[in-house]
Automatic annotation (TrEMBL):
<feature type="domain" description="Reverse transcriptase">
    <location>
        <begin position="124"/>
        <end position="328"/>
    </location>
</feature>
<dbReference type="InterPro" id="IPR043128">
    <property type="entry name" value="Rev_trsase/Diguanyl_cyclase"/>
</dbReference>
<protein>
    <recommendedName>
        <fullName>Reverse transcriptase domain-containing protein</fullName>
    </recommendedName>
</protein>
<dbReference type="InterPro" id="IPR043502">
    <property type="entry name" value="DNA/RNA_pol_sf"/>
</dbReference>
<dbReference type="InterPro" id="IPR000477">
    <property type="entry name" value="RT_dom"/>
</dbReference>
<dbReference type="InterPro" id="IPR052055">
    <property type="entry name" value="Hepadnavirus_pol/RT"/>
</dbReference>
Length: 590
């Protein structure tokens, strides 16, 4: 069993960098793993399977090197993880209870990582400090793999400690610096709406996606693994860091674009799951006959780059495919919830209903599942409002995350409707276009120095942030989501419903959180849920699009200034919702 130990916390990040006694080197092979302490003051970095020189050539040939020039260098030298600076004092916290109660899972994981060369060690604390200087370990945890019952994923809690202000790695990482292209539900719809007869699709999965990505030597001290009083150096992108998905996305996004430019069809991706949709050769936009419906052609291109498809998970080309947890039938032009997913969500509802009192986390998990289902069960969107309102009644403070409450009648009715609906075999909908778009340009922004700005058409509004708003997880991302929430409320008040709306926002993290229907931040999550409830109740299909701050006319109102251009101020365009009264006020400009 692990020996718990705690040393001093991380000090300020502006101290002098400490250098290793022996510089890291690349080794052509990895020795058999050992769990005996390693006294040798050296670190051997394993080679990566992806081939930097080939990537650089391919990106240059396809005109993508300017956009993805960091990828070949990242594969050679390691990607920066986004820390604010070097670790200046060693920090070894206790591992979480889920890890301590599953020591065999942790030990098996460590042995696997040592065998692949992705871990180096073990070292005792003093020896490792001699090699790399002060370092920080994150608490280990164990979670079930939903897709593989009986299997577990090891996570490192890089948000620990959850103090304010925090010294955690994730508190240093600006996630907006690590964007990712996502293939969302509307993106699949858009392709399939134009798909001619004979269209085929296939799905591919990247083998150990994050663990293919090397981390820069200077950042290794931030991601040390500590178990049973021994330390291990991790050379690859870990699970749990706020930048992990964005680092993989640099390779994943460029890979998708390279496939597209080489004529492999429409390529969409969700983290490490790739979807290839190919129109038949004799149609407009059709692919080359040698490529059409050929899994081997996709493998051949990947092999040149060292890209590791997990071939056992490949679903070959067909007119029916599974992506984003839905079953898509191109010929029938229908999308539905697969049987196993339907049964899983049905069981989740039954578990929630059977509990006299539930937690915020249980409720938000259920909301996330049902919001997902509502993509193909549009009549169920307004039915979520009661459950979302119940979720909003909880305190979102981390210290109160275990509070339990009895669901109210409205929430129970919402969930019972979904329970009945998910008993229907093949429940889903036809693939069809969203409602017509509103012909309005809409912009939102937030500034910590002043407040919120919204522009709808030719009118603008502004609100100030009250003193003390920035607590309990409310940050600039939360403020940006609140600006979107105010824009939606304003739109509804002026009569918009049964329409498609696009809001331009200059915070990429918020844009992606909306598209994913969730955020890591519980305060942002609560606001996203409220926006969803409003949109579902009024049949508004809302999209958020990223706009550069320099092009966002709502930037000035958010800073207490009038926008530039032909805009008229809408005095008090809406009443501030009661749940926001403590945080924002009507803005009075000079």
């Amino acid at each position: 069993m692990e020996q718990n130990s705690v040393t001093d916390s991380i000090a300020q990040v502006d101290a002098t960098t400490t250098h290793a006694l022996t510089p890291p080197m690349y080794a052509p092979s990895v020795v058999a793993p050992s769990t005996e302490p390693n006294p040798a003051p050296r670190i051997i970095c394993p080679p990566v399977s992806l081939l930097p020189a080939v990537w650089e050539t391919e990106l240059r040939d396809l005109g993508l090197l300017e956009e993805f020039g960091d990828v070949p260098s990242g594969l050679r030298d390691g990607f920066r993880i986004g820390a604010a600076g070097p670790v200046t004092k060693t920090f070894i916290p206790n591992n979480h209870g889920s890890a301590r109660s599953n020591p065999h899972v942790i030990r098996e994981h460590i042995c696997t990582e040592l065998a692949t060369g992705r871990y180096c060690g073990p070292f005792d604390k003093d020896t490792l400090e001699q090699i790399i200087g002060p370092f920080s370990a994150a608490p280990l945890g164990v979670v079930d793999k939903p897709s593989t019952p009986g299997k577990f994923r090891i996570i490192q809690d890089f948000s620990y400690p959850r103090t304010y202000p925090s010294s955690s790695l994730n508190s240093q990482i600006n996630s907006s610096n690590f964007p990712c292209t996502w293939g969302f539900f509307p993106d699949v719809l858009k392709v399939l709406l134009d798909a001619p007869p004979g269209t085929k699709a296939a799905t591919f999965d990247v083998d150990a996606a994050y663990r293919q990505m090397p981390i820069h030597t200077d950042d290794l001290p931030h991601i040390i693994v500590h178990w049973d009083n021994q330390c291990y150096v991790d050379f690859r992108v870990p699970f749990g860091a706020g930048s992990s998905n964005g680092i993989f996305a640099r390779c994943g996004d460029s890979m998708a674009l390279m496939y597209a430019r080489r004529g492999f069809g429409h390529i969409l991706k969700w983290v490490d799951d790739f979807l290839f949709i190919q129109f038949p050769p004799n149609s407009s936009g059709g692919v080359n006959p040698e490529i059409f419906s050929s899994v081997d052609a996709i493998y051949k291109f990947a092999d040149r780059l060292g890209w590791p498809w997990k071939r056992s998970k490949t679903a070959p080309f067909d007119s029916v495919f599974t992506y984003l947890g839905f079953l898509w039938d191109i010929s029938a032009r229908r999308v539905s919830i697969p049987c196993k997913k339907r049964e899983k969500y049905h069981a989740r509802i039954q578990s929630w209903l059977s509990s006299p009192k539930v937690t915020l986390r249980d409720t938000q998990t259920l909301i996330g599942s049902l919001v997902h289902c509502a993509l193909v069960v549009p009549e169920g969107r307004p039915k979520l409002a009661g459950l979302i309102a119940f979720s909003a009644s909880f305190s979102h403070a981390y210290s109160q995350r275990f509070i339990r409450k009895s669901p109210d009648q409205r929430a129970l009715e919402s969930v019972q409707w979904w329970l009945r609906t998910l008993q229907i075999k093949g429940v889903g909908c036809q693939i069809q276009s969203p409602p017509p778009p509103a012909r309005l340009e809409i912009f939102t922004d937030a500034s910590t120095s002043h407040g919120l700005g919204v522009i709808i058409g030719s009118e603008w509004g502004a609100w100030g942030l009250k003193d003390g708003w920035k607590k309990h997880g409310r940050d600039i991302g939360w403020a940006e989501v609140i600006a979107v929430e105010l824009a939606v409320i304003w739109l509804i008040q002026i009569g918009h419903h049964n329409t498609s709306i696009t809001i331009n926002c200059d915070n990429q993290g918020v844009v992606y959180a909306w598209k994913a229907s969730r955020s890591r931040n519980s305060q942002q999550n609560g606001a996203i849920e409220r926006i969803m409830a409003q949109c579902m109740a009024h049949d508004i299909w809302l999209s958020l699009e990223y706009i550069n701050t320099n092009l966002n006319p709502a930037d000035r109102p958010s800073r207490g200034k009038e926008p530039v251009g032909q805009y008229t101020r809408a005095w008090h365009p809406l009443d501030i919702p009661s749940h926001l009264n403590d945080f924002i006020s009507h803005n009075i400009l000079p």
